[in-house]
């Protein structure tokens, strides 16, 4: 037995050295980036409030004579772009550039929609997302709910276990991003909007939780917009060291809470005794601001007609599932009116430098139900 003792000691030493090597290697692979998403599609389905669920698109809902969202993308090339922003290293990569209008930022690139769609799809997948909505005909792409793992505390215990017990850790937050593409006179406009959920306890014993909406994060929108700019511009993220500082400076010009007061140039009014939003902006800027608000509030967008200034959306009132009630629900319910899925038009009209936003029914007639007030309030709170 004694002649085997040195071998045993050597084996123990080698085992310790191997364990230490694996430990150091695991720690070195932990990214220190502030963005490291992991799709929630690989985990159990989130229990999301009914008014935040995405509704299935009804293929029968077609508007005769309307211009499809990307119908004009196949037309002749648009006129030369006008300079709206300084072509600094942080705001331009190749032919892709970020334009800032007020507190909003969007990407402009003079390409066809078809040439951008596949790189956009790869962009979100490369960043750890699963696509929940992928509709080129509408120019809308939306990710599934995902968790930013970079927000996990990197303490000694977390670094020690590495990714072996990664599933035991959770930030208690989920993010979803919607990308919208539109053809304009200045080129192809790409907008990224964020929606967030936070896990909160519903009992004093902290044994039950529910996912509740949290404010949109404009800094995340800008960060992904800049990353997309680098990809479409054919440059790597490391080629532009100003990205992190530029994204972090966005907090000084944007609001991070949808519960703050509306901007001074936005107010809720009554027009012909119906709720409406008045925006002190021309049509182009007002259309863009309303579009971002619609994306942030999670409306299901059926189509949009920029020429007529109309968004075609679907809305599920809070407390409903967005599904038609079954036969027995209709038979035994005590309510005379059962709130169900409804289709609306969000109309944007402009006179000079003042624009008005109103809610219409699917037939184009001004909406008079209580849902019109709810929709107007939702949009007014999100218009920045």
Tell me about this structure:
This protein is an alpha+beta fold. It folds into two domains: 31-254, no CATH class; 261-384, 2-Layer Sandwich (TATA-Binding Protein), CATH 3.30.310.170. The chain has eight helices and 16 strands. Strands 2, 3, 4, 5, 6, 8, 9 and 10 form an eight-stranded antiparallel β-sheet that branches. A hairpin with a 7-residue loop joins β9 (187-201) and β10 (209-214). α6 packs across α8. The longest helix has 24 residues, at 5-28. It is globular. It starts with a helix and ends with a helix.
- Integer average pLDDT: 73
Number of helices: 8
Which blocks of ≥5 consecutive residues have pLDDT under 50? Answer: 1-11, 20-32, 47-89, 241-259, 327-339
- Beta content: 25-35%
What kind of assembly state do the chains in view correspond to?
A: single chain
What's the number of structural domains?
2
Approximately how much helix is present in the residues? 25-40%
Q: What is the rounded distance between the termini?
A: 79 Å
The rough form would be described as globular
SSE arrangement, N to C: HEEEEHEEEHEEEHHEEHEEHEEH
Structural category = alpha+beta
Give me the secondary-structure topology:
Blueprint: H1 5-28, E1 37-39, E2 92-93, E3 96-101, E4 104-109, H2 113-126, E5 131-135, E6 140-143, E7 146-148, H3 156-161, E8 173-184, E9 187-201, E10 209-214, H4 218-232, H5 243-248, E11 266-271, E12 274-279, H6 283-297, E13 300-305, E14 310-315, H7 327-332, E15 342-351, E16 354-361, H8 370-382
Antiparallel strand pairs: 1-7, 2-3, 3-4, 4-9, 5-6, 6-8, 8-9, 9-10, 11-12, 12-16, 13-14, 14-15, 15-16
């Amino acid at each position: 037995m004694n002649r085997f003792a040195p071998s045993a000691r050597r084996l123990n030493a080698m085992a310790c050295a191997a364990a230490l090597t694996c430990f150091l290697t695991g720690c070195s692979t932990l990214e220190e980036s502030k963005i490291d998403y992991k799709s929630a599609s690989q985990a159990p389905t989130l229990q999301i409030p009914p008014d935040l669920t995405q509704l299935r698109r009804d293929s029968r809902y077609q508007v005769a004579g309307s211009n499809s969202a990307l119908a004009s993308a196949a037309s002749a090339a648009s006129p030369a772009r006008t300079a709206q922003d300084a072509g600094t290293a942080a705001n331009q990569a190749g032919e892709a550039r970020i334009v800032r209008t007020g507190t909003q930022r969007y990407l402009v690139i003079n390409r066809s929609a078809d040439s951008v769609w596949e790189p956009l799809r790869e962009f979100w997948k490369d960043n750890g997302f699963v696509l929940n909505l992928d509709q080129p005909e509408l120019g809308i792409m939306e990710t599934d709910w995902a968790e930013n793992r970079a927000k996990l505390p990197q303490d000694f215990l977390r670094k020690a276990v590495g990714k072996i017990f990664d599933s035991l850790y959770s930030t208690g937050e989920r993010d979803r991003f919607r990308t919208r593409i539109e053809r304009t006179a200045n080129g192809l406009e790409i907008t990224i909007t964020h929606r967030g959920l936070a896990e909160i306890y519903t009992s004093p014993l902290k044994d039950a939780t529910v996912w509740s909406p949290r404010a949109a994060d404009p800094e995340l929108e800008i960060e992904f917009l800049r990353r997309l700019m680098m990809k479409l511009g054919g440059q790597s993220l490391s080629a532009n060291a100003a990205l992190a500082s530029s994204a972090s400076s966005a907090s000084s010009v944007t609001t991070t809470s949808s519960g703050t007061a509306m901007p001074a140039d936005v107010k809720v009014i009554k027009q012909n005794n119906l709720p409406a939003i008045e925006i002190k902006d021309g049509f182009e800027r007002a259309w863009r601001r309303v579009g971002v608000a619609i994306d942030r509030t999670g409306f299901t967008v059926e189509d949009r007609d920029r020429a007529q200034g109309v968004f075609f959306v679907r809305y599920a009132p809070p407390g409903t599932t967005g599904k038609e009630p079954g036969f027995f629900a209709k038979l035994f319910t005590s309510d005379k009116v059962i709130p169900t899925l409804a289709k609306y038009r969000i109309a944007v009209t402009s006179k000079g430098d003042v624009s008005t936003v109103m809610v219409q029914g699917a037939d184009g007639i001004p909406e008079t139900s209580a849902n019109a007030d709810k929709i107007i309030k939702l949009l007014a709170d999100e218009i920045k």
